[in-house]
């Protein structure tokens, strides 16, 4: 009976990982696929590889935090309770998909485990407080970092990253010999090559950051119950994510790739880089982080920074004869040098904040990102507290 329950637990865990792979591959590699830099199959392979690397290295910290530190008595983690916790995580993913908002698996996993800890009187409030504090602080950091980038550095980044795909492939592959040879195609220019490498590298960073944080959402309950060791749990989780990346993620890749014009390529790279870096940092601390919430606030901050860039700042030198220094001058290489507006051709085209992020959509995302984990927390608590079979 225990062996059968363990098989069920592993399958439910892999199902959660499968959904993680399906929901995170699009945001990670959608820009690269949309720019025809890589194929969907290559994107799925890179997703599986870098997710596993992130899970195998830094992801262990988050698994330990959720599986053994969030609750003071690991005895509440039985095989049965672990399966129920994973069930609530899976239901949360389904709810998010139904409402068209990707639910935060990290927040939902913490909520489900917290519900279990509350029902069993074993929730470590200090650890929970630490996690919640970082949940509040990290989106604020993402907002301000992105705002500064949008206001002072976006024009230069846009000139470096902006590319137009040339006709023909990026590379030529010579398969005449025993070892295939790869060379740059004759129509591929240096800017295009640099842009492609940047987009793919950012996608790999996002996949890595997803592995560092999201692996715990799929396997921490089983590891916490001591029914499954850390190494095989990560392997099973990685397999589930890879299967999801090769199957259901193809649709999200297509959506993200075709809709990428709504978020300029440079902006997508900035948001991905800021959000992924914060997630990896928090994962190193053992904190499960919500990439979607951080990314949402980064988009808002970047849009606000771009829209407020053409303003004057206080005099930067003490000399009375010095002219006022504008934001453009702060970003210029030489005094008096004018920079182009932030990615636009004409100053009149500088966007309003509302043009760069939809306040209603932003509110809906943030609301659902908090409602879904709350539902998981309440559901887990009520189940473990009042269903007699669990004995709490």
UniProtKB/TrEMBL annotation:
The chain crosses the membrane at residues 44-63, 75-99, 132-154, 193-212, 232-249, 287-305. It comes from the Archaea. GO terms for molecular function: phosphate transmembrane transporter activity. It is found in: Membrane. GO terms for cellular component: membrane. Pfam families: PHO4 (PF01384). It is a multi-pass membrane protein. Keywords: Membrane, Phosphate transport, Transmembrane, Transmembrane helix, Transport. GO terms for biological process: phosphate ion transmembrane transport. Its main location: membrane. InterPro entries: Phos_transporter. Belongs to the inorganic phosphate transporter (PiT) (TC 2.A.20) family. This is Phosphate transporter. It comes from Halosimplex litoreum.
């Amino acid at each position: 009976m225990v062996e059968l329950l363990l098989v069920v637990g592993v399958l439910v865990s892999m199902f959660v990982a499968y959904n993680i792979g399906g929901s995170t591959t699009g945001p990670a590699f959608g820009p690269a696929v949309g720019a025809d830099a890589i194929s969907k199959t290559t994107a799925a392979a890179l997703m599986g590889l870098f997710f596993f690397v992130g899970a195998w290295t830094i992801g262990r910290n988050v698994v330990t935090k959720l599986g053994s530190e969030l609750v003071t008595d690991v005895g509440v983690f039985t095989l049965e309770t672990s399966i129920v916790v994973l069930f609530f995580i899976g239901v949360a993913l389904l709810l998010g998909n139904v409402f068209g908002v990707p639910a935060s698996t990290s927040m939902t996993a913490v909520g489900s485990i917290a519900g279990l800890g509350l029902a069993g009187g074993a929730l470590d409030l200090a650890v929970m407080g630490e996690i919640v504090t970082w949940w509040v602080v990290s989106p604020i950091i993402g907002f301000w970092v992105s705002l500064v980038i949008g206001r002072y550095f976006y024009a230069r980044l846009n000139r470096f990253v902006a590319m137009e795909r040339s006709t023909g492939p990026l590379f030529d592959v010579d398969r005449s010999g025993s070892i295939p040879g790869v060379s740059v195609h004759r129509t591929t220019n240096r800017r295009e090559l640099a842009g492609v490498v940047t987009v793919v590298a950012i996608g790999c960073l996002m996949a890595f950051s997803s592995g560092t944080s999201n692996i715990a959402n799929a396997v921490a309950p089983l590891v916490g119950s001591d029914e499954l060791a850390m190494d095989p749990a990560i392997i099973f989780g990685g397999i589930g994510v890879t299967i999801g990346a090769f199957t259901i993620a193809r649709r999200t890749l297509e959506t993200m790739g075709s809709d990428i014009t709504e978020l300029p390529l440079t902006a997508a790279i900035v948001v991905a880089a800021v959000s992924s870096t914060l997630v990896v940092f928090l994962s190193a601390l053992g904190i499960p982080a919500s990439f979607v919430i951080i990314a949402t606030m980064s988009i808002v901050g970047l849009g606000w920074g771009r829209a407020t860039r053409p303003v004057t700042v206080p005099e930067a030198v003490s000399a009375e004869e010095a002219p006022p220094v504008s934001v453009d001058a702060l970003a210029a290489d030489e005094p008096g040098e004018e920079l182009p507006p932030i990615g636009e051709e004409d100053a009149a085209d500088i966007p309003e904040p509302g043009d760069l992020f939809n306040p209603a959509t932003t509110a809906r995302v943030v609301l659902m990102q908090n409602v879904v984990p709350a539902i998981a927390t309440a559901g887990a608590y009520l189940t473990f507290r009042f269903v007699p079979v669990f004995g709490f």
